[in-house]
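Researcher: Re-running this chain for the archive, since the previous output was lost when a drive failed. Same request as before.
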Amino acid sequence: MKNPLSLCFLPLLFLISLSITLSACSAVQRIGEHGPQGRGFLELLVEPNNAEVFIDEEYAGIIAGWHEQIVPVAPGPRKIELRAEGYITQRFDLTFAVDEQVTLELRMQREYPDIFDETIPSPTSMSPASIQPPTPAQRTPIH
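Model: Regenerated C-alpha cells:
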C-alpha cells in the first residue's frame, strides 16, 4: 500500500514545477508589432559607455549592455536621451527608417569638469579654427 503522505506531495510537486515553468516564460522578451525585420538601429559610440539610454522617454538600458552597442528602434521619429551620473544629459531628435542604422558618436561632457583635467583646453589655447562643431548622426543602410 502506498504511503498517503506521498500522495499529498504529488500535487504540490506538480504546482511547484508549473509555477517555475510559467515564471521562466515571463522573462522572454516580446517582439514588437514591427518584428525584427521592421526595425531601425541606433549604434551608440558614446563615452562613458555606462550611460543610460531613453527612447521616447522610456528606459532602454545601459549602452554597454547592448550587443555591439546597437539598440533596435521602431521606425519613425524618436526622442533619444542619454544620461550618466556626473555628466550633462544629451538629447537628440532622430528619425529611423526600416533596416537603417544611425550612428551617434559623442563624448559626454562632465557637469563639473575637474580643474586638473588636462583634456579640457585652456581658454588661451583655443582659437576659432580649433573649435569643431559636433558631428551629426551618420546614416548607414543595412542590407
